[in-house]
Amino acid sequence: MPIIEWxxxxxxxxxxxxxxxxxxxxxxxxxxxxxxxxxxxTQIVKYKTGEQLLLHLTIEKDNQLVIPEHVKDLLxxxxxxxxxxxxxxxxx
Length: 92
What we know:
The protein is of the alpha+beta class and 92 residues long. It has one domain (4-89): At1g16640 B3 domain, CATH 2.40.330. Helices cover 16% and strands 45% of the residues. The protein has helices at residues 21-29, 69-74; strands at 4-10, 16-18, 39-46, 52-60, 64-66, 79-89. A hairpin with a 3-residue loop joins strand 4 and strand 5 (64-66). The longest helix has 9 residues, at 21-29. It is globular.
């Protein structure tokens, strides 16, 4: 399976991360379901420190990943991050 990843910048007020259209298309080709309510297994790497987080993030309307409060604290002052999609599962 090819790696599906992208770079984005976040700040301390970021609540959701938009999934770019080209990532949506690539995930569709790899049969990864990016739909509202589904959960993505995602690795986030902070560029400044190299710290890695392995998370299950929920997809909200308009193809946005919801960042939970405890994760916002971990990403505080992160700036540029790399997100890698490792898989998906249907929401409950």
